[in-house]
């Protein structure tokens, strides 16, 4: 499937409002797990989810400069497994006629206020029409937070051992607080590992931990442990392995994963996967499915920082894993995957030895040693060629920020000022609601 072309017009209006078709909108600047958190919760409320993406110009006017272009942001929303359709040029202040055009009865947003350049609530019109639903905002993450990490070069977000954090054995605070945080993080992983309905198990989630001592052959060994069981490979699917840091999960990663899926589909087509008989056989056992089961190995923070230095990764392993899990091209995730996939690692993967190991055209983490020497020796190594987004990675995103540092620092400052205005609007709304309740109580007493 080709990425959305933002030039495409909205199309013919929907014949009617559909109860199960919901709308979310936003900037979705380097689409992160906070965005995905709102999307997955919205998807749980209906059967279809349309995602409106604001233009670069509208965002600049109301919020500040974007880091990613409209095309890059659309590529990201298209790749989210819970999104039915992406819609470009959605108005910054959500309009009733716009969402009605697409047949969406309700708009879904987090429990925080989003305001336009004048400080007014962007959802005031849909709220007044009782066509607004609220979900919980993902705590401790936003595009603004991530830009702050880049500008300040902080490293406090790093996680030493994710498995221990999830068990409440590592982190900040009391033992009880650590347990609570660990359970919340574990629940978030489970949610992001759901299927396209956001209600059933989808992706498999595993940990891999390497032995501290290497074998005499200098090959790192380790142990796999299951966190969440998903659907698993279906009959006839090829198991495909990819790995990386997936830091600031963006268009470069997404396009690579899309092309991996496309390559596997082309191979399957040659072997008759899409013949009428094969399709009918699969449908006879349930819904049809694709030919590839894609496993993504996600490196630990320490591994990436050892290779890149400074304060990379900008996102910690938990955040990066969530970003990968929400992507529709992924079937399973292995947290803590080794930087160099060894034979013992590949042959002991829970889904069996992969049929192919894919790598992209460029590397954000250059290495003197051939990291993929083993897959090449095994005859399973495949490479994705050049593509339009191959240069987009965590490094180039940071460069974009630093190139316009003054603009983004102004955006950070403006964000704080907007927060004060938004707080004033919330206080006004609260007072109005209290006044309304008071008047209703007086009226009831008179009756």
From TrEMBL:
Sequence ranges assigned to domain Cytidyltransferase-like in this UniProt record: 24-147
Pathway field: Phospholipid metabolism; phosphatidylethanolamine biosynthesis; phosphatidylethanolamine from ethanolamine: step 2/3; Lipid metabolism
CDD domains documented for this protein: CCT, ECT
Record-level GO BP terms: phosphatidylethanolamine biosynthetic process
Keyword terms: Coiled coil, Lipid biosynthesis, Lipid metabolism, Nucleotidyltransferase, Phospholipid biosynthesis, Phospholipid metabolism, Transferase
InterPro entries referenced in this protein's UniProt entry, alphabetically: CCT (IPR041723), Cyt_trans-like (IPR004821), Ect1/PCYT2 (IPR044608), Rossmann-like_a/b/a_fold (IPR014729)
Pfam families cross-referenced by the UniProt entry: CTP_transf_like
Record carries keyword DNA-binding: no
Coiled-coil region: 414-447
GO cellular component: cytoplasm
Entry EC number(s): 2.7.7.14
A GO molecular function held by the record: ethanolamine-phosphate cytidylyltransferase activity
UniProt record similarity statement: Belongs to the cytidylyltransferase family.
Protein name as it appears in the record: ethanolamine-phosphate cytidylyltransferase
Organism lineage: Eukaryota, Fungi, Dikarya, Ascomycota, Pezizomycotina
């Amino acid at each position: 499937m080709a990425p959305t072309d933002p030039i495409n017009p909205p199309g013919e209006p929907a014949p009617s409002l559909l109860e199960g078709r919901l709308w979310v909108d936003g900037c979705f600047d380097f689409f992160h797990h906070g965005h995905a958190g709102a999307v997955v919760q919205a998807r749980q409320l209906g059967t279809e989810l349309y995602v409106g993406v604001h233009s670069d110009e509208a965002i600049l006017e109301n919020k500040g400069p974007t880091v990613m272009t409209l095309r890059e942001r659309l590529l990201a929303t298209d790749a989210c497994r819970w999104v039915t359709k992406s819609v470009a040029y959605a108005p910054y202040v959500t309009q009733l006629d716009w969402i009605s055009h697409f047949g969406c009865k309700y708009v879904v947003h987090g429990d925080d206020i989003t305001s336009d350049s004048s400080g007014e609530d962007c959802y005031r019109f849909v709220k007044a029409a009782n066509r607004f639903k609220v979900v919980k905002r993902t705590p401790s993450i936003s595009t603004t937070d991530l830009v702050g990490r880049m500008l300040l070069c902080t490293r406090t977000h790093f996680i030493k051992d994710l498995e221990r954090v999830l068990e409440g054995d590592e982190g900040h605070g009391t033992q009880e607080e650590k347990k609570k945080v660990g359970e919340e993080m574990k629940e978030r992983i489970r949610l992001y590992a759901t299927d396209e309905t956001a209600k059933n198990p989808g992706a498999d989630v595993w940990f891999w931990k390497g032995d501290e001592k290497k074998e005499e052959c200098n090959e790192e060994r380790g142990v796999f442990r299951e966190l969440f069981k998903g659907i698993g490979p279906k009959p006839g699917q090829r198991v495909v392995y990819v790995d990386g840091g997936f830091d600031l999960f963006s268009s470069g990663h997404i396009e690579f994963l899309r092309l991996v899926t496309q390559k596997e589909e082309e191979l399957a087509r040659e072997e008759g996967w899409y013949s009428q008989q094969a399709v009918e056989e699969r449908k006879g056992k349930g819904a049809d499915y694709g030919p590839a089961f894609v496993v993504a190995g996600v490196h630990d923070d320490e591994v990436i920082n050892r290779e890149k230095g400074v304060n990379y990764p900008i996102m910690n392993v938990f955040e990066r894993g969530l970003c990968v899990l929400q992507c529709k091209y992924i079937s399973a995730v292995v947290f803590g995957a080794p930087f160099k996939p060894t034979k013992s690692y590949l042959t002991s993967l829970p889904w069996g030895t992969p049929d192919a190991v894919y790598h992209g055209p460029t590397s954000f983490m250059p290495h003197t040693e051939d990291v993929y020497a083993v897959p090449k020796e095994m005859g399973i190594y495949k490479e994705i060629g050049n593509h339009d987004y191959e240069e987009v990675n965590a490094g180039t995103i940071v460069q974009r920020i630093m190139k316009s540092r003054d603009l983004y620092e102004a955006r950070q400052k403006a964000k704080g000022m907007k927060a004060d205005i938004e707080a004033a609007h919330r206080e006004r709304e609260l007072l109005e609601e209290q006044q309304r309740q008071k008047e209703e109580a007086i009226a009831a007493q008179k009756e």
